[in-house]
Design goal:
alpha/beta, Rossmann fold, Helicase, Ruva Protein, domain 3, two-stranded antiparallel sheet, 14 helices, 17% strand
Length: 328
């Protein structure tokens, strides 16, 4: 059973990390919150937005605040798997020549996969193993990656030329997909004022890897009422058009729904959010808060949705309302 002190310490630690990140980032409060939730829950994040919104800067600020090894990979069509996993190289020793493994940029705790959809499927598959299994296999030998381990990927939704859309299997490995919105006028003023300074303020370390693992252990203890879990699982089932009792909007606009991994992601993320809000247990509002980010990359719209101009977030919102009514 969690104590009040544990909840307070959890909230204060996340608050300290958040304050350091905000030294380098203007606005984007919801994006920062979702990123922190995924980091504590131990999931990967896909950040989607047009160029210049500070996605790379946000991940770099997170690495400063967490004092964890950080690497950035700029994905391009000519990037090969060995470029990110590492490879065996020949080194000369006193005894002669020998093979030595040279680790690639995946061997960091925080990996920024910039413009991930520009890499070929072959390279994306190498990243998939790291995301899911937290290890890589090179020349038949499996090597573990450092813990905690996160892949934070960015994607540009505008340009489609020279890109390779992520397969559904890889999208499913991202705990959250977070849309990065365009800043408001007041935020644009702050961004310009911040970036034209001769000396910019940089985030300072507020936690380390052991702190994150400790926060994760605390989050796993948050109790989940059967009714709240039932609401989350009914929401997952409601995304499947082949289900007999699927809502009409699902049958009309969706090709396929979310996997069981989406349910796991939703529950894990909701536990972190509950603690961050100072609660002992997961509430319905925690499920509603994390559901869009957990589902938007796991649902496939059909042609009717595209023709009617219906977005995946609109479908998710309608489903939460319908499932909520049925659950009441």
């Amino acid at each position: 059973m969690l104590t009040q002190q544990e909840i307070k310490d959890f909230s204060e630690k996340l608050g300290a990390i958040r304050r350091e990140i905000k030294k380098e980032i203007v606005g984007q409060d919801a994006v920062v919150e979702h990123l922190l939730i995924a980091v504590v829950a131990g999931g990967n994040v896909l950040l989607e937005g047009v160029p210049g919104l500070g996605k790379t800067r946000l991940v770099r600020a997170l690495s400063h605040a967490l004092q964890l090894p950080f690497s950035r990979i700029q994905f391009t069509p000519d990037l090969m798997p060995a470029d990110i996993t590492g490879t065996n190289i020949v080194v000369k020793t006193e005894a002669g020549s020998a093979f030595s493994f040279q680790p690639g940029p995946l061997f960091s705790s925080i990996v920024l996969a910039d413009e991930i959809n520009r890499a070929t499927p072959k390279t994306q598959s190498a990243l998939l193993e790291a995301m899911q299994e937290h290890h890589v296999t090179v020349a038949g030998e499996t090597r573990a990656l450092p813990e905690p381990y996160f892949v934070l990927a960015t994607q540009n939704p505008v340009e489609q030329e020279g890109t390779y859309p992520l397969p559904e299997a890889q999208l499913d490995r991202f705990m959250l997909k977070v849309n990065v919105p365009f800043p408001s006028l007041s935020e644009l003023h702050q961004i310009v004022d911040m970036t034209v300074k001769t000396e910019e303020e940089q985030a300072q370390p507020a936690a380390d890897g052991q702190d994150i693992l400790a926060l994760r252990a605390v989050a796993r203890q948050v109790p989940l009422a059967q009714a709240v879990q039932d609401f989350a699982l009914r929401l997952i089932l409601a995304t499947h058009p082949q289900e007999e009792n699927a809502p009409e909007i699902t049958k009309k606009y969706l090709r396929f729904g979310a996997s069981p991994r989406a349910a796991q992601a939703m529950i894990s993320a909701a536990r972190v959010r509950a603690l961050n809000e100072g609660r002992y247990n997961v509430a319905f509002e925690d499920i509603r808060y994390v559901a869009p980010a957990c589902l938007r990359h796991r649902l496939a719209l059909n042609f009717d949705a595209l023709a009617d101009g219906v977005s995946v977030d609109q479908v998710i919102s309608a489903l939460m309302e319908e499932v909520g009514k049925a659950h009441a």
